[in-house]
Each structure stands twice: as C-alpha cells, then as structure tokens.
Amino acid sequence: MARSNGKNFRLRVLMEPRHGACYDEILALALATEEAGFDAFFRSDHLFGVDPADRTYRPTDCWTTMGGLARETTRVRLGALVGAATFRTPGLLATIVASADEMSGGRVELGLGTGWYAREHAAFGIPFPDTRERFDRLEEQLAVITGLWRTPTGDETGFSFSGKHYTIEENHTPPRPAQSPHPPIIIGGSGPRRTPAIAARYASEFNGALGGDLRERFAVFARACEAIGRDPGEPRLSAVLPVACGRTRAQAQRRGAVMGSERIRESACIGTPGQVTERIAELRDAGADTVYFHIYDIHDLDHIALLGAEVLPQVTDPALVET
C-alpha cells in the first residue's frame, strides 16, 4: 500500500496548455484523466501562456470551465493550482467556488496564491500591486473566504470583516459549498516566510511548487505550523512534476519538446514509465503525499492513458482510488 506520512498517496493531473485551450479540449483531457484512474484534474489559472509573445494563446477562465467540468465528470476532484488572488474579490470567489462545489457534488478544491505574472495583468487590465501588498491581499482573501464558508446558516449576526483591502458588512447569506466545513484549500510556493506562514494558518494542503529543495520547503512549512500550534502532520504535502513519458526514450523526448521552456525541462521527468516511477519515489521520500503531473500537450490523450496504465498502479494501491 503506497503511503507517505501516513496518508494515501495521490497522483493528479495538472493542465497548463502551452497555447491555451477551448472548453472542449479541456473537457477531453479531464475525461481522459478520469478514465485513466487519476485522483484529480486541475488546471492553471492564467490568461497568458509562459511566453507572453505567443499570439496563438487562447485564454479561458479557470472557474467557468470548472463549473462545466463539475457537471460532465463524475469522480475526479477538480481545482486550480493555483488561482491568482488578484483576479477576483474574495466574496465573489467564495461564491464561485461554492457554486462549482455544489455542481460537482463536493469535488472541488481551491488553490490560491498571490499571482505573479505582471504582463498578464497588464494585458487584461487587472491591477498588479507590489509583492507585499499581494501577500496582504491573499491573507485577507483567505480570512474572508473561510469566514463566509464557516458562517452558520441562519446566523443572526452574519459575517463581517474589516481589513486594509477588503470589507464585508453583515453578510447574512454566505455561499454554501457542498463540502463541510468547506472545500480543501491549497497554498504553495517557494517563499521562505509569508507563504508557509499563511499556509500553516489556512491550508489543507501545502504545495512545494516547482524546482528547488522540496524537503527544505516542507521543513519550513512544518516549523510554521508548529509556531501556531498546528500539527504539521495534518495538512497534505504536494509537489508538481512536469512529465513527458514514453514507452521509448525517443517518444518521451518528443513529448518533452512540447514543454517549450528549458527551465521547465530542467525540473521535468522525461523518460519511460519506470523512470517516472523512480522520480515519484524521490518526491515521496522528500515528504510529498500528492504529486501533480504537469501536462503541457493537452491533445495527447495517449500520454494520459500511458501514465494511468504504467505509472499509476506502481505508486498507488488501486483500491485507494475513489470510484
């Protein structure tokens, strides 16, 4: 039985299309993910691709597509890794996510971060504050979102919040997600101070982000949990792994070429199912109990099928995959 830190090990698919996607393409990948047996299907929350000069990129709104997938999938969990807190106000985001959660029958998870892509914000007219303010806004957003979700039905006082950036005045009709007390919250990143501190307070799952010393990031997060009296063994610990898997080395290399960025390829596992399995074992040894396969070619559904058939059974007990 595959376990890490006493938790059932999970493999998930994270979609970040190099050139964007339309809804039908996203749906096809989500359905392939579900059919292959993966635990969850996540997507990035971006309006630009990695290359801001790519004029072929087709943007879609993350949570609009999640609402559609909530009705057209049946088992996989759904979410964003991670959403940009700059894109939506907290009361609105709490309602959007709760709506998608109800539509899915309780399968939605909220990944949220500060936002980082300045050019993307400029291209769509979205304000992009400095780093300190973005962290301040993220912390206030999480306080508002969780506060709204946790406010009991019929509460006479309602929910109020007064912060530097957001104010909520006596909300007596807060959004109601299907999950209780609310959908899992994923927070992650490579920052050594504020990211782990905020995650320790609000996260159901801490994501160690891409590249770098994963073991050390998890250790910093554990210390942040201990500092506020939280058991560091409670939250999930996850990692992102760009992957290009092939039955042959040549096939894997062809899939790896689609990633497009040398920085991403440096962090990626490009190889056979056995090599991918070995890389996952390294991430588990570093403390991860959840791994997101970062997929860039969303049209290559055979890639998802291969990973599901040749890698998934090697690292998870099929009996632990919810059906």
UniProtKB/TrEMBL annotation:
One of its GO terms (biological process) is alkanesulfonate catabolic process. Residues 20-255 form the Luciferase-like domain. Transmembrane segments: none annotated. Keywords: Flavoprotein, FMN, Monooxygenase, Oxidoreductase. GO terms for molecular function: alkanesulfonate monooxygenase activity. Pfam families: Bac_luciferase. The keyword Methyltransferase does not apply. NCBIfam families: F420_Rv1855c (TIGR03560). This is LLM class F420-dependent oxidoreductase. It comes from Amycolatopsis taiwanensis. The lineage of its organism: Bacteria, Bacillati, Actinomycetota, Actinomycetes, Pseudonocardiales.
